[in-house]
């Protein structure tokens, strides 16, 4: 087998190698360690790691043709290493972004200053399917809307971090970040030698405390995680978080609202619930208030939250702030509320509402990325340079028919990192989902979930479409570089 | 503890126990058939009994009506059949589904034992198994259930989840012994000459031969065997022992006074214990007596 060695980085930014074919300083120790293993050892370890995920049932559920299968997320053992300097920038940037977005949400469901001052066009909010009008004036606990956010970052061809997407509703994958580390420690202990990393386990207790911040009853407050159940694709995430935070994992049918308070049904009667970390979408949360056909939610939950008797996090109505159309305005939002320049840049985004812009985009479809503003997970998306004529024409028709539904972005040269698959090393595109919690204060979990497009040449990192995960190390300051 | 969680733990535990009981019964049966032909009348009775105990009398009658019952049919139905809710595969699936829905209440080792076993057998096809592999599979089922119980005993906190798993296990075992007694009684009634034969079989199928022989100097007297299966205070498969343990677990869960949550279950168990104690072991009409008790088990739910 070819050993791990520098390859042509081409026009991409590579995490491990410079364009001159040198190993970057913060990867040198790891690079040498990997080279000291032979093919059989690496193959064996790779299989062990994969089996370990399966054995522990760390899976997500994929639905196709009405059949569900449990899959593990493919794991790649070459970690992404982030230097302490880079991390400082990411950490500050994420914290700033969360604060800005939170202020925006509070304003949108309050005074609407940002609309009145014309910073953001009103239609973007009022026509947004995730905007919930009757939340205006709602008593959001701590005036905080975001308990847990997942911010997707990429690096462009110059290595600059940029925000690709904000996830302020139900970002999943935090459990994978932890399990990637646990499996890594277990199967590849040798890789850690001579590295000093931020430990991520120490962030679990703060996560619980942050959740409890939202409770109005101080002592003996009860928090729960509300899951749609075992059939949800992110069920493992729910199990892991409930377990680690030491709270009950409940389903809608376990909760009942009586006299504007929420209770869970235990074998010894009803017990009051103060904080609900829900992993159910707004639409399904309460059949009395939202979709009446929802079987997952709890009748009366909205009333109880309005009365201030229970905190629902992440707050209802957050979708208005992580929508792909609003995304382009986030830098303005940060400037407006915080009076600061955004630390992390966006990816350039073109709205297709204006005919002139639309014309410009339609002429260059084969060079651009087109995304549906309402979808996620890599669905309904066109990557121009990698597409077929049929698909280009299909998107052309879609855009002409419903321009509001789509946005365009230049094709970013997503950075790459080496991966080991099918017994060989080759470069794959990566991105990074960084998680941040926010209660009385904001806290960014060091590292994140590095997602990798394991199919050769592919740009799609979503696990539902063949993407995998990597452990992500943040080096502590003073680490030998 | 949430009611849903209690339910799931209870059924996880019952299904694990049931899979082990069915597998043990089948490994006895696979060995029994080796020395004789399937057409042998006694073998036919045994196979009938196996299906009667581990599935239902209706299914056993249905197989009998079709002609000679084959070991192949019995294994296929009791181990793999999707349409048989009590097949080992279905028990394992149900146990795993329940475990998955309460993963945050069971420890990781327990979950992994159940999960790995499920993944290993999920796509197993009956026709691919040789006799040798079949024995290995049965052994594997048995050992999985036993390891699960070992993990529960040695690592689980003695809190509510533990007690509920115990209740499930002991109730399932009590019901199994009771079904065995009933099936054997029917056979003895039809053919009293073979009573010792069936008593020996019953002991094997409840995994009690060794224990019985240690106690009784090898005399397979029906009255001794029946007493052993029903009321032997030290045999962990006797109905009395199982019910005693289930009751102990309920008391630990609820305290001496109990609560409305387990009231119904406690009442039912007390009725069964009373009736079992009243049984006269010389009674010819055991079959009827068990018929009377049977309905009390079926609706029992935590």
TrEMBL record, chain A:
Protein name as catalogued: Circularly permuted ATP-grasp superfamily protein
Transmembrane segments: none
Entry superkingdom: Bacteria
Every Circularly permuted ATP-grasp type domain range: 79-453
InterPro entries linked to this entry: ATP-dep_Glu-Cys_Ligase-2, CP_ATPgrasp_2, UCP005522
A family per Pfam: CP_ATPgrasp_2
TrEMBL record, chain B:
Alphabetical list of InterPro entries matching this protein: ATP-dep_Glu-Cys_Ligase-2, DUF403
DUF403 domain sequence ranges: 1-288
Domain of life: Bacteria
PANTHER family in UniProt: BLR5612 PROTEIN, SLL1039 PROTEIN
Protein name, per record: Alpha-E superfamily protein
Natural source organism: Geomicrobium sediminis
């Amino acid at each position: 087998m070819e050993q791990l060695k520098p390859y042509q980085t081409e026009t991409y930014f590579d995490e491990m190698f410079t364009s001159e074919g040198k190993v970057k300083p913060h990867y040198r120790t790891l690079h040498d360690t990997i080279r000291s293993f032979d093919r059989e050892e690496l193959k064996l370890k790779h299989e062990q790691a994969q089996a370990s995920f399966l054995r522990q049932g760390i899976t997500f559920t994929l639905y196709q043709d009405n059949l569900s299968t449990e899959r593990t997320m493919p794991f790649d053992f070459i970690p992404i290493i982030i230097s302490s300097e880079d991390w400082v920038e990411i950490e500050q940037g994420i914290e700033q972004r969360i604060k800005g977005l939170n202020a925006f949400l509070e304003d949108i469901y309050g005074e609407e200053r940002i609309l009145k001052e014309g910073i953001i066009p009103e239609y973007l909010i009022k026509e947004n399917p995730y905007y919930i009008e009757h939340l205006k004036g709602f008593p959001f606990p701590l005036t905080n809307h975001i308990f847990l956010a997942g911010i997707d970052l990429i690096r462009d061809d110059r290595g600059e971090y940029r925000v690709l997407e904000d996830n302020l509703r139900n970002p999943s994958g935090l459990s994978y970040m932890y399990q990637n580390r646990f499996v890594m420690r277990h199967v590849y202990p040798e890789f850690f030698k001579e590295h000093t990393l931020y430990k991520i386990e120490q962030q679990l207790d703060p996560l619980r405390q942050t959740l409890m911040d939202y409770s109005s009853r101080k002592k003996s407050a009860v928090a729960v995680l509300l899951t749609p159940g075992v059939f949800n694709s992110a069920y493992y995430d729910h199990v892991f978080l409930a377990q680690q935070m030491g709270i009950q994992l409940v389903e809608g049918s376990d909760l009942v609202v009586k006299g504007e308070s929420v209770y869970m049904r235990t074998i010894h009667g009803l017990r009051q619930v103060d904080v609900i970390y829900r992993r159910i979408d707004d639409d399904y949360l309460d059949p009395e208030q939202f979709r009446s056909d929802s079987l997952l939610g709890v009748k009366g939950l909205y009333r109880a939250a309005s009365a201030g008797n229970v905190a629902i996090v992440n707050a209802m109505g957050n979708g208005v702030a992580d929508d792909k159309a609003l995304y382009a305005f986030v830098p303005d939002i940060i400037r407006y509320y915080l009076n600061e320049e955004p630390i992390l840049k966006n990816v350039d985004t073109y709205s297709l509402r204006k005919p002139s812009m639309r014309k410009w985009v339609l002429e260059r479809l084969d060079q651009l990325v087109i995304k549906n503003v309402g979808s996620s997970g890599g669905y309904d998306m066109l990557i121009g340079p990698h597409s077929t004529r049929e698909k280009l024409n299909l998107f052309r028709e879609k855009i002409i028919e419903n321009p509001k539904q789509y946005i365009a972005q230049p094709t970013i040269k997503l950075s790459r990192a080496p991966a080991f698959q099918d017994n060989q090393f080759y470069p794959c595109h990566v991105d990074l989902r960084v998680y941040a919690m926010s209660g009385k204060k904001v806290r960014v979990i060091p590292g994140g979930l590095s997602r990798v497009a394991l199919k050769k040449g592919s740009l799609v990192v979503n696990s539902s479409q063949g993407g995998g995960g990597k452990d992500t190390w943040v080096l502590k300051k003073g680490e030998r570089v | 503890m949430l009611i849903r969680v209690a339910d799931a733990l209870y059924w996880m535990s019952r299904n694990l126990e049931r899979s082990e009981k069915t597998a043990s019964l089948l490994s006895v049966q696979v060995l029994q058939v080796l020395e004789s032909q399937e057409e042998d009348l006694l073998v036919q009775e045994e196979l009938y009994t196996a299906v009667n105990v581990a599935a239902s009398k209706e299914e056993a009658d249905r197989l009998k009506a079709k002609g000679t019952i084959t070991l192949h049919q019995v294994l296929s139905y009791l181990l793999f059949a999707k349409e048989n809710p009590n097949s080992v595969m279905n028990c394992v699936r149900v146990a795993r589904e329940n475990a998955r829905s309460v993963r945050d209440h069971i420890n990781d080792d327990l979950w992994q034992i159940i999960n790995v076993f499920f993944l290993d057998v999920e796509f197993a096809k009956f026709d691919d198994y040789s006799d040798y592999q079949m024995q290995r599979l049965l052994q594997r089922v048995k050992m999985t259930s036993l390891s699960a119980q070992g993990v529960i005993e040695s690592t689980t906190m003695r809190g509510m989840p533990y007690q509920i798993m115990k209740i499930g296990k002991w109730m399932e075992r009590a019901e199994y012994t009771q079904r065995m007694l009933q099936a054997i009684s029917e056979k003895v009634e039809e053919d009293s000459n073979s009573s010792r034969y069936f008593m020996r079989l019953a002991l094997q199928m409840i995994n009690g031969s060794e224990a019985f022989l240690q106690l009784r100097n090898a005399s397979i007297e029906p009255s001794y065997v029946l007493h052993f299966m029903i009321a032997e205070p030290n045999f962990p498969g006797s109905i009395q022992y199982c019910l005693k343990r289930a009751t102990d677990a309920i008391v630990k869960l609820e305290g001496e006074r109990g609560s409305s949550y387990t009231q119904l279950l406690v009442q039912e168990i007390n009725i069964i214990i009373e009736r079992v104690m009243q049984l006269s072991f010389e009674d010819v009409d055991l079959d009827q007596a068990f018929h009377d008790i049977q309905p009390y088990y079926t609706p029992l739910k935590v």
